């Protein structure tokens, strides 16, 4: 069987960049996968060569990015905007959370930033990025 490197097709996929050494973030990726029966989302760690390159092409400093990033139609969404747009594409009841998008970003991001600041303390940190299982490997880029 010939192995080919899958490219990110922005027309049919949504890309989630996540902190690959964060236990909470890895759990979030697994949460998304379990609630995404259509396989809409693809994933790459912020630390991966693919993630770093994508952020640089979009004019973002990869060293300053510690937030979840959703790339949809060549637009980068971060923090609560990314989380809510991800929830919107998951199976019911999670799309209901998208209603919080009406709140001003500074309020939504206040909650997001509080969790992000404490994620290593509450959930721990790994030395290396997660290695996807064979069943979900095709959904990971980079």
Integer average pLDDT: 84
Estimated structural class: alpha+beta
Low-pLDDT sequence parts: 1-6
Strand content: 5-15%
Distance separating the two termini: 20 Å
CATH level-1 class? Alpha Beta
Main sheet overview: 4 strands, mixed
CATH topology-level fold name? Glutaredoxin
Q: What general outline do the C-alpha atoms trace? A: globular
- CATH architecture designation: 3-Layer(aba) Sandwich
What's the structural domain tally?
1
Question: Topology, please?
Answer:
Layout: E1 14-18, H1 23-34, E2 41-45, H2 49-57, E3 69-72, E4 75-78, H3 79-89, H4 105-123
Parallel strand pairs: 1-2
Antiparallel strand pairs: 1-3, 3-4
In words, what does this structure look like?
This protein is of the alpha+beta class and 142 residues long. It has one domain: Glutaredoxin, CATH 3.40.30. The chain is built from four helices and four strands. The chain has a four-stranded mixed beta sheet with strand order 2-1-3-4, with helices on one face. β3 and β4 form a beta hairpin.
Key features of this structure:
disordered N terminus; 142 residues; Glutaredoxin; 4 strands; 4 helices; single chain; four-stranded mixed β-sheet; alpha+beta
Can you summarize this structure?
This protein is α+β, with helices and mostly antiparallel strands and 142 residues long.
